[in-house]
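Exam revision sheet. Question 4 asks you to relate a sequence to its structure. Input first:
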Amino acid sequence: MSTIAASHVVDGSESADEAAYTTVHRVVFPVDNDPDLQSLYVDLSRGPAVVPPGGGGEHGTHVLAASDASMTFEDRRALELGEGERVSFATYFNAFPASYWRRWTDVTSVRLQVELDAPARVAVYKSNARGESQRVDFVRGESGVLTFDLPLTSFGDGGWYWFDLHATDGDTRMAWAQWSVPSTHARAHGTASIGITTFNRPDYCVAQLQKLGEDEGLRDVIDRVYVVDQGNQLVTNDPGYATASAGLGDRLRVIRQGNLGGSGGFSRGMAETIAAGDSQYVLLLDDDVVSEPEGIRRSVEFANFCRTPTIVGGHMFSMYAKQVLHSFGERVNQYRFFWGSAPQVKPSHDFSAGTLRATPWLHQRIDVDYNGWWMCLIPVQALQEIGLSLPLFIKWDDAEYGLRAKEHGFPVVSFPGAAVWHVPWTDKDDAVDWQAYYHQRNRWVAALLHSPYRNGGSLPQESFAADVKHLLSLQYSAVELRLKALEDILSGAGHLHDDLGSGLATVRSMRAHHTDAKVSKEPSDFPEPRRNRPPRKGKDPERPSNPIAFGLSAIAGALRQVRPVRERAKAVPEERVATMAAKWWRLSHLDSAIVTSADGAGASMYIRDPELFRSYLMRSVRLHRQLLARWSRLSADYQQAQAELTSVEAWRRTFEANAVDERD
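Answer key, structure tokens:
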């Protein structure tokens, strides 16, 4: 057992060395008593769980017996328990992420303090990277402040600290609890400005502003809040804006500019933070997120203690299933040059089904390449040394910045206990809608800048294969935009700033004439499907089961694309296909189909077009050959242009060129 120093202060007064500690992690509770959030703040299941070596159950989770109990929280920090009740704070928001403090700071110990208004028993636990937990101290406390000084020396690869509270001798009340670290280890005492980019989501944005203004814990860490409004449904016209604005006072500034996408909006927040000179950090927040304000405070405090200036990002929970962790740590596979979850991360973890104590993989420290800009704290020093965002409009701006930062010695940490709720990208069609252009172009741009592999590793092959897949799926609008993206890359880096304000209109107009891009929300808008002949053996095509079958199916589908289309199929769809089933191995066998959108709100008619198939396929072959032949030269050109593209001066010129008349 670790050596623990525990002291009990009966009268609740501060210990003599209290001023030498900085509170970095306060135990908090949801203010609205949303039952879907309870599992993120308190654990009422019987435990503690001790996960056996090697694992646990399916997906690395040792399932605890769930508790049917629920809890009502009287305020953000206090908690009442009836006699015999027990609560554990081994939860996402209230456990202390010890391994991250061990890895990224010089802090060697943490102090836990719990103030009780009545007797209770407090048990302190820790875990290791395998998810195994052990009790490190147990105290029967009277009224007053219990203090535990806990070492961080054993958290090299993972692990958390937490405590349980047990009312054994009658009702009890916890007035507050917090985790503090020695102040001498602070590298900085910085504060942050918040940069929010918004486009026609005034209700979401105003709700966010109101939450930021109401939380007293943020007042000493947030200097300014910049709202960059790029839409025509203005934040300032929302009915709740006056109240939200009053809560922030002169710390709030709303800036209007033309729609420059996320990269343009966030770069404006970055530039304004640098110009004001008040903050050591800028915290980027999406407009359509719901934040946990305590996570914002924790991000700032953690950044102050990191041994070098560090980008500190927050995780993403699902807006639709609030207890589901959607993104816990992201990396870029630099051979494929494609983003995704870190290898140890299990997607869409549901905390209501698997508690922190019972989920071994959550106890590993997850190291990342970047953090999404739904919530991301960036040191101003990094902005000054490596520039602002690339002018990419949307997609890959956050990933590219993380890679660039790490190359220049600025670590990136996705920090547990700091998170927002956001609409998950699994409910979007952004690989086939107008965003297909930005997915393709920006992935290539990032690879030209950062790929360590000759000719970009497998990116060119994967890119061409994706074009073929979209063609076999009758998604001609996506292919046209992807080919436009490659042509723009070949034109040179100068187009990135030049097209930032006008590129979206061009992309939308190019896509508009394709039938697969026209979405109807009324099922009755389409004729009832009618097949020319039934499917072979009464079965719809399925995913090929092995590489040989995969290749044969692709060849057969490609050969079918050059055959004439039945005239009736151009007006009457052959099938209605759900989003999950709309794969190339099924759509390539049809002349037409009604395909549901990913969000389930609409549908489009896909019609096979042999001429477009031949034209786009040949164009894709030609462009990919050109990119391979010119890879080295293009890579050098983009790398040489990067400093200018991301400079404050270049961005200022773009802001001025896309200024909006405030009277409009």
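Marking note for examiners. The two ends are 68 Å apart (CA to CA).
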